[in-house]
Fold this sequence. Notes:
By secondary structure, the protein is mainly α. It has helices spanning 3-13, 17-55, 59-84, 89-103.
Amino acid sequence: xxxxxxxxxxxxxxxxxxxxxxxxxxxxxxxxxxxxxxxxxxxxxxxxxxxxxxxxxxxxxxxxxxxxxxxxxxxxxxxxxxxxxxxxxxxxxxxxxxxxxxxx
Length: 104
């Protein structure tokens, strides 16, 4: 554990119960915000990929971009599963997006 992490843990332990609850609430909100940001990044990347696929001039370009999108989706899947867990709504959204990519 890093020195700054140990210092922060010691500081948190000295907090009053009310301050600690507030700290925990803020940390929970920060985690939720991080999750929403990851989802928005994922959706943005998917929309960009859809536009690129739509702009492809021939079958080879379209196939290449679809394969690249599928590979990016696999990377996102691993990251989202690690961050949110397999039972989360966020991960379920990703699986639905994967089905859409497979359909395309």
